[in-house]
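Exercise 7. Predict the joint structure of the components listed below.
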Amino acid sequence: MSGNNRSPQEEPSAGIPEEDRVRADFYAFLAGLLVRPADVATLRRLAALKGDQTAIGAAIDALAAVARSMSVNTVRREYNDLFIGLGRGELVPYASFYMTGFLNEKPLARLRQDMARHAVARARDVFEPEDNIASLCEIMAGLIRGAFGAPLPLAAQREFFAAHVAPWAGHFFSDLEGARASVFYAPVGTLGRLMIEIEREAFRLGGAETG
Amino acid sequence: MTRKTDDTSISPGTSRRDLLRLGLAGIPAVAVGSVAGTGAAQAAEEVAPTSLGLRKTEHVLKYYETCR
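Solution:
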């Protein structure tokens, strides 16, 4: 692999403002929770988390509580019921589906164009369409950190967010919070929804700032 | 969830950085390192379209399971 061919989590985020590093880390955190069911080590680490008085802190506490009380198998079953299912899960975590009602539609095509523009590619052994929520969170993390090249300027981050994340991710995370099968993933949905709300507001305020 | 509204309510002069600092303050530093990354995306090198065929996605594996 070439020097710039790294997955986002390997990328040191030196030189990136602290708030942006936290944003990137939080996106990566969400991606890690959504890409596959949590394993034993992840549940153990989540169980040790302590939140504070903020809304995000409360959701972190809720996540820690369910991580303490649930087994890996239960979480895996819940993940399957939510996202895989037989035919389909309770939720379909793809931008295309949320934005058009169908999978593999124009939103995916537009995302692929933008990924190519920013030199991001789907990893070789991954076959999921790129517009799933975990991939989009990971791409946001990578674009902020500069894992796919130089960190993306704020204006370009905003453009990517507005095109591929903002139109649907908030709805998806709300659905995840309220899904019938959600226990472990309910606080994950809360965290995602809060993140999208904060991002949306921050990008709105960031209009005058340069990246 | 009233606190969130407090966190993200905008007073004149609030900058993007202030808002992020406030809004994301509740994330414990250990939280973000507690989940392994996904590895689903990587920087592009050459994009070589590979032949497709049946892919063993989670859906396909689940289908196989139910057929047993």
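Discussion. The domain at 15-205 of chain A is CATH 1.10.3480.10 (TorD-like).
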